[in-house]
Amino acid sequence: MRKYVLKRLLQCIPTLFGITVISFVVIHLAPGSPIGMQLNPKVSPRIVEQMRENYDLDKPMHVQYVLWLKRLFKGGLYSFKDGKPVLQKIGERLPATVVLNVVSVILIFGFAIPLGVFSATHRYSLLDNMGTLAAYVGISIPGFWLAYILILGAVKMFGVPVLGMRSFAVAELSFWQVSLDRIWHLALPSFILAVGGIAGISRYMRSSMLEVIQQDYIRTARAKGLREDEVYYKHALRNALLPIVTIIGFLIPGLIGGSVIVETVFAWPGIGRLAYQSVLSRDYPTVMTIMTISAVLVLLGNLAADVLYAVVDPRIRYPKR
Amino acid sequence: MLLRVCGLKKFFPFTGGVFGKGGVVKAVDGTSFEIANGETFALVGESGSGKTTTGLLTLGLLSPTAGGVYFEGDNIFKLNASEMRERRRRMQMVFQDPYGSLNPRMTVGKMLREVLSFHHVVEPDFVRERINELLKVVGLDSSYVRRYPHEFSGGERQRIGIARAISLEPRLIVADEPVSALDVSIRGQILNLLRELQEKLGLAYLFIAHDLAVVRYVSRRVGVMYLGRIVEEADTEEMFARPLHPYTRALLDSIPVPDPEIRNKRTMPAGEAPEDYEECPGCRFYSRCPRAERKCKEVEPELVAVEDNHLVACHMASN
């Protein structure tokens, strides 16, 4: 197993290299330059030239790439926008993104698994059909649109704060009021982030459960005389969860990479919003670093999914030596 | 009588797609038989004759359209959940497919422990001992408890299935084609094991099979099923010596004889069991029967005793 993981990790390196090269080219080919975004158009060409030199933008692209790669490993990547170290900027945003995504993952699994199991055990009932409809709506509805609708609703009907991570001037409030304020700020974005996942994974869970319920060993469990709930939750659910658990691996990238859309709509100070703002200002070092981190996470997530598969299913053992 | 099955019927409705009309499949259509303590009763027939459905109904794993199953005198379909659970201990099943019928994520030990502790068969302290004993009885090593089903061969898996079935000390075991998924070389071993266990534990079997050679080896009494109904029932030796129903004869003739000199006289009528037999009122074997007469087309024959312990549903059998 250890050898397998090691091999997979080594295989990730060329993939990662390819990803960074392509992203680097794409972001540099995008119209507009970091300098044009920052400066008044009337600034003299000499200053512009000076800045291009400072940012190494006058060098050929492959040289720029190598320089970027060197700085990524040695440190020394600074944002074009405010001159802060890129890693520091990302580090400042990380906690907000992690909190948001952990909550949404909890929401996803907390709702999707019971919903899917219920749908499967009550197949073709009214509630199951309604669940199917709701799932299609949930998958196809655009997140940003639903977000604005919910913001309108929450503000108009309940008058609760929804944008950002906290209200201003909460310092004087009691601990409970502060907590409540935080929860309100967290509720909508994490829900929006979870909607698609809940809809998709509950369908996945339903079909997985239905498939398991038809298996012969479920009939065996019934013939043993076990109670129906034991048949479902002990024999069927454990087998049906197998493909679901591995999905956690695919959720890891979002967990730290953040969501550009949700964080932007809710003014959530996370990495997703940072990425968005950096793209707008052509802040190449920041964009590239976030991109690289996301790519690493996606690759690790895939690996985690495969490893989890082996952990939960005794039949799967990767070659030992 | 340990088990009495009376007029059991199970119809499966089907829908005919968008334009077709729906209907019912009469999987079991009025089956009756009895099994005494420690006896083996075999049900034979082609695929689709309703054998397996009868087996599932007998254990209450399906609910019937009509009829009753009387186990130790009580109709199991009239029992409530807890009474049924208590009966379950004494009626168990060995399944046909030794691969699909074991939960792939449970070790052998876990599987047996679950049954033993769920039904409180033995005190918790003795569970481990009892598991080892069970494995020994079915001829497996007690070191196998930590293994998962995929680590075993088909024969071993079937032994595990048998160990699970006898772990509750049942009085009746429904064995649904327990050897048909196995290699011929393993079949004998499993059949011997089933016979041994019967003698040791006084089990009764409802043995479902399509292989007449197997049936002859294990059972004392045989019922031949055709399209959901028993068409002939007799003691095994009697049945093999003097089959009365034309369908039974055809089945017996189809057993291969290990002698190349003997030409196989194939009397099995061509084709398969008709699916629309219910449209004619007569004998369900009419369309394939070599001896059919007019009466057979019009009146369905009843299952009647033509001799002691030999029942047959055929107008032609008594003359």
Could you characterize what this model shows?
The complex is a heterodimer of chains A (321) and B (319). With 321 residues, chain A is an all-alpha fold. Chain A has a domain at 86-167 and 176-312: MetI-like (MetI-like fold), CATH 1.10.3720.10. Helix content of chain A is 76%, strand content 0%. Chain A is built from 14 helices and no strands. Chain A has helices spanning 2-29, 34-38, 45-54, 61-74, 86-121, 126-140, 143-158, 175-213, 216-223, 228-245, 247-257, 260-265, 271-280, 284-312. Chain A is globular and about 85 Å long. The relative contact order of chain A is 0.15. Chain B is an alpha/beta fold. Chain B folds into 2 domains: 3-90 and 173-312, 3-Layer(aba) Sandwich (Rossmann fold), CATH 3.40.50; 101-167, no CATH class. Helices cover 30% and strands 23% of the residues of chain B. In chain B, the strands form 2 sheets. In chain B, strands 6-7-8-3-9-10-12-11 form an 8-stranded mixed β-sheet, sandwiched between helices. In chain B, a hairpin with an 8-residue loop joins strand 1 (3-14) and strand 2. In chain B, helix 5 packs parallel to helix 6. The two termini of chain B are 32 Å apart. The model of chain B has no long low-confidence stretch (mean pLDDT 86). Classes of the chains: A mainly alpha (321), B alpha/beta (319). The A-B interface holds A 215-217, 219-227, 230, 234-235, 238-239, 242, 313-315 and B 59, 61, 81, 84-85, 88-89, 92-93, 95, 97, 100-106, 114-115, 118-119, 148, 150, 161, 164, 168.
